[in-house]
Amino acid sequence: MKLDRKEYLALSQKASPPSPSLKNVPAAFFTGGAICALGQFFKGIFLGWGMEDKAAGTAVSVTLIFLGVLLTGLRLFERAAKWAGAGTLVPITGFANSVAAPALEFKTEGFVLGVCVKMFSIAGPVLTFGISASVLYGLLLYLFGGAA
Fold it and tell me: No. of H helices and E strands in the chain?
């Protein structure tokens, strides 16, 4: 079956339900903001315990990753992500979920071939392309005089 552009667009619009943006955008904004506020709250606690700023930032990252993995393991992250969308997926908690969810899903296939192999099935391409892009941008910056 060969479709022209107009027919394809009509079929695509018919098959794709409209996105409830009036609900999705504020939910993502406030959820992402709440996660960031939670991180700031933890940073205040860590600074209050006498940590230096850089160490407190690292501790916040570790804490948010732990909470993301914990909520994934308890099957609560998926429920929150369905409601909040990108608000849960953009911060570091989304990365933690992208590593933990496939590991949990494939644990029945064993530790090595299930958990370890599938753990980075979602996060792996993000890491690969993110690291590759940062190396490329760093080289361009160095070559074209932006680096000190």
Answer: 8, 0
Residue 20 lies in a domain: no
pLDDT tens, residue by residue, 76-135: 998 988 888 888 877 788 888 888 888 887 777 777 777 777 777 777 787 788 788 889
| Contacts of residue 59, Cβ cutoff 8 Å, sequence gap at least 6 | 42, 43, 46, 51
pTM: 0.71
Dihedral pair phi/psi, residue 93, rounded to 5°: -65, -35
Let me know if residue 86 belongs to a domain: yes
Domain range for 101 is 26-119
